[in-house]
């Protein structure tokens, strides 16, 4: 029976990682996989996480089961960062730990479907796994353009989508650091989005996977908080895999804001049941380390400092790239207006292939680059390579 399964195309980014590893050129440049890198090209474990892990190893006295909701101390400790220290809606919000932001998005869509949502509206391009999750659940995906041709957020389309949406519709939005475009909504645009949601019955699903890597922990949550202030209910998928550098430890959470506190119990019981039937319980280690960081003032400050230095480096790389200005039709000044790890370069397939074959530059076939793959040692080479293929 298993022989009826058709071959699936391999994950393009994973294939790129293999090609990069096999390239023997010393000056090759990896702009593919989406992880933060230091100016030395490393993706180190955060010092605050290392300290928390040491504490965990020394103090953890049991690895007995917790439950589908995972580490509730972790879930609660994150809430002030996501929803604000004095969130007026907090008695209507509850969460549970998930295996990464991926698990949170999946659970959000699954519970939305169970509650009667029939369509999920998604701006494209998006993180490819968004569409894959929608198709796998399955639920109807309805796509709109995330960006305009001149590289701005297509706010008019989004406002139209929200206005036309009704019961049975959900709209999935990136909270900040849009993957793959880096094109975020301005605060004024978020105000308009929140206003549109307040007049629509659509359910917002907010995916916050890069808080702190854009403009700051508070500023990156502006849109999410504005939307939550305008609607009766919403689902919030959160990842700690980038902003705590925990990638492979799979650390995330799903929060639900209900119309009133009494509804939280039944909703959470459904989330628990869905989680139980898929992964049963989330992996503990990374979330426990985050809890220890957030419950210790010194470790929290170490984390905040490290996150601030990452954010500053990403902004610095973006400014350096923008200084290269226009290369042929390629407008690099846009990179300075965008946020987070990713941007899209308007390159043809041939140009992307030539960057790889002639210059050892590895990027996704879509033209997405991981900005953090650039550093003082390779930016000039990358700009010269762009001049060669696109100038
Ligand atoms: N949402 C978005 C927009 C993402 O880019 C990612 C990660 N690339 C995730 C969710 C999931 O992150 P993870 O499962 O690694 O925590």
UniProtKB/TrEMBL annotation:
Gene Ontology BP annotations: L-phenylalanine biosynthetic process from chorismate via phenylpyruvate
Q: Name one GO cellular component term.
A: cytosol
Q: Looking at the keywords, is ATP-binding present?
A: no
Q: Which InterPro entries match?
A: Aminotransferase_I/II_large, Asp_trans, PyrdxlP-dep_Trfase, PyrdxlP-dep_Trfase_major, PyrdxlP-dep_Trfase_small
Q: Which Gene3D superfamilies match?
A: Aspartate Aminotransferase, domain 1 (3.90.1150.10), Type I PLP-dependent aspartate aminotransferase-like (Major domain) (3.40.640.10)
Q: Which family does it belong to?
A: Belongs to the class-I pyridoxal-phosphate-dependent aminotransferase family.
The cross-references to PANTHER family, in alphabetical order and at most eight, read: ASPARTATE AMINOTRANSFERASE (PTHR11879), ASPARTATE AMINOTRANSFERASE, MITOCHONDRIAL (PTHR11879:SF22)
Complex formation: Homodimer.
Q: What is this protein called?
A: Aminotransferase class I/II-fold pyridoxal phosphate-dependent enzyme
Naturally occurring in which organism (per UniProt): Allopontixanthobacter confluentis
């Amino acid at each position: 029976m298993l022989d009826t399964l058709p071959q699936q195309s391999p994950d393009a980014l994973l294939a790129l990682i293999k090609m990069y590893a096999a390239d023997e050129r010393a000056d090759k440049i990896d702009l593919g996989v989406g992880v933060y890198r230091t100016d030395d090209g490393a993706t180190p474990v955060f010092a605050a996480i290392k300290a928390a892990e040491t504490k965990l190893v020394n103090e953890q006295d049991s690895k007995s089961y917790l439950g589908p909701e995972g580490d509730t101390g972790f879930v609660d400790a994150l809430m002030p960062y996501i929803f604000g220290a004095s969130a007026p809606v907090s008695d209507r919000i509850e969460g549970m730990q998930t295996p990464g932001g991926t698990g949170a998005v999946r659970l959000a869509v699954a519970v939305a479907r169970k509650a009667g949502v029939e369509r999920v509206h998604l701006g494209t391009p998006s993180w490819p796994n968004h569409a894959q999750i929608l198709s796998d659940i399955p639920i109807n995906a309805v796509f709109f353009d995330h960006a305009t041709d001149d590289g701005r957020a297509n706010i008019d389309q989004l406002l139209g989508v929200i206005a036309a949406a009704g019961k049975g519709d959900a709209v999935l939005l990136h909270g900040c650091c849009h993957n793959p475009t880096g094109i975020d909504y301005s605060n004024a645009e978020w105000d308009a989005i929140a206003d549109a949601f307040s007049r629509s019955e659509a359910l917002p699903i907010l995916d916050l996977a890069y808080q702190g890597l854009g403009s700051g922990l508070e500023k990156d949550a502006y849109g999410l908080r504005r939307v939550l202030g305008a609607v009766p209910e919403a689902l919030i998928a959160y990842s700690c895999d980038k902003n705590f550098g925990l990638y492979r430890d799979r650390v995330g959470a799903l929060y639900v804001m209900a119309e009133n506190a009494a509804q939280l119990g039944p909703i959470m019981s459904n989330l628990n049941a869905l989680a139980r039937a898929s992964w049963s319980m989330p992996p503990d280690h990374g979330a426990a380390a985050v809890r220890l960081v957030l419950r210790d003032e010194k470790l929290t400050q170490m984390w905040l400092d490290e996150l601030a230095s990452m954010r500053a480096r990403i902004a610095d790389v973006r400014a350096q790239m923008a200084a290269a200005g226009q290369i042929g039709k390629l407008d690099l000044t846009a990179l300075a207006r965008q946020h987070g790890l990713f941007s899209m370069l308007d390159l043809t397939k041939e140009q992307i292939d030539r960057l790889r074959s002639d210059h050892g530059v590895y990027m996704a076939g879509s033209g997405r680059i991981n900005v953090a793959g650039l550093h003082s040692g390779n930016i000039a080479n990358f700009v010269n390579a762009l001049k060669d293929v696109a100038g």
